[in-house]
Amino acid sequence: MRTDIALEACLNVAEEITGAEWTQENGEDKVVVSTVKITTPEGAKRLGRPMGKYITLECPYLRENQLEIHERIIEGLTKIWKDFLNAFSKANSILVVGLGNRRVTADALGPQVVDQVLATRHIREQMPKEWKGNLGVVSALAPGVMGQTGIETGEIIEALVQAIQPDVVIAIDALAAGSIERLVNTIQICDTGIQPGAGMGNRRRELSEKTLGVPVLAVGVPTVVDASNLAEKEDMDAYYVTPKDMDVVLKRLSLMIASSLNRALHRLSPEELKAYLY
């Protein structure tokens, strides 16, 4: 079964996995936060993904227009971001990269999130003193896909990391789910980086600390599911299923993820962030 979700990989293995731990916490509004920790090469091989920590937030209201619930989800995501960033010895300068093709609705999560991230690296030296304690050093880029640029996306990001030398890279990408129940109802954040296109069998250059030389956090939402997972027919491998209202849903999801990133990377209230952004 093709999936980018570590939790699904765990659930698909019937027996206990050596070198992997899984915990689950149930919250209000039917929010479920699961943490998968892969701690050994054996566990990584069994689950088919790198060692590290994967946090999955699931909620049936993610795709719905439920503003109060979404605000609480943003607060939860902000805490997850801060916990990951606090684990690094240095996280002063952040590069946010939105992967994907903005012209393809189901693949436009990364660019849409980047469009709403408050980038400040270019104005750092011109900031009034009273602002410097509140605004982080953030760069943001949506590099497109190789079919648009003729350049491997990983090559663009590697060159950019060498040029501006961020402390941490945060990559956003649309993911593939193994089951329709998690389609646009799940957000996964991990500290292992990302291999774009892996869930769809179109593996591109890996973005990780190993390839970039700096820690890489990754966040994604499953926007497609392999049709063969649903129909259990081999001739369906070339087809993927996505919700018919994906354009509307993606606006909500990208806003939630961008809002959580802005709150985690800058010391600003939601009202102050709106003033800066709009």
Provide keyphrases for this structure.
278 residues; alpha/beta; nine-stranded mixed beta sheet; 9 strands; 22% strand
Descriptive overview:
The protein is α/β, with parallel strands linked by helices and 278 residues long. It is built from 11 helices and 9 strands. The chain has helices at residues 6-11, 41-47, 67-86, 109-114, 129-132, 146-149, 153-164, 209-212, 227-231, 246-265, 270-277, and strands at residues 20-26, 32-38, 52-58, 93-98, 137-141, 168-177, 186-190, 216-226, 240-241. Helix 3 packs across helix 10. The longest helix is centred in the first third of the chain and has 20 residues, at 67-86. It is globular.
Secondary structure: elements and pairs:
Blueprint: H1 6-11, E1 20-26, E2 32-38, H2 41-47, E3 52-58, H3 67-86, E4 93-98, H4 109-114, H5 129-132, E5 137-141, H6 146-149, H7 153-164, E6 168-177, E7 186-190, H8 209-212, E8 216-226, H9 227-231, E9 240-241, H10 246-265, H11 270-277
Parallel strand pairs: 4-5, 4-6, 6-8
Antiparallel strand pairs: 1-2, 2-3, 3-7, 7-8, 8-9
Helix pairs in contact: 3-10
In short:
With 278 residues, the protein is of the alpha/beta class. 35% of the residues lie in helices and 22% in strands.
Biggest beta sheet summary:
9 strands, mixed
| Count of alpha and pi helical runs | 11
Strand content: 15-25%
Helix-strand topology string: HEEHEHEHHEHHEEHEHEHH
Radius of gyration: 18 Å
Helix content: 25-40%
Overall geometry comes to: globular
Number of separate strands: 9
In whole angstroms, the N-to-C terminal distance is: 43 Å
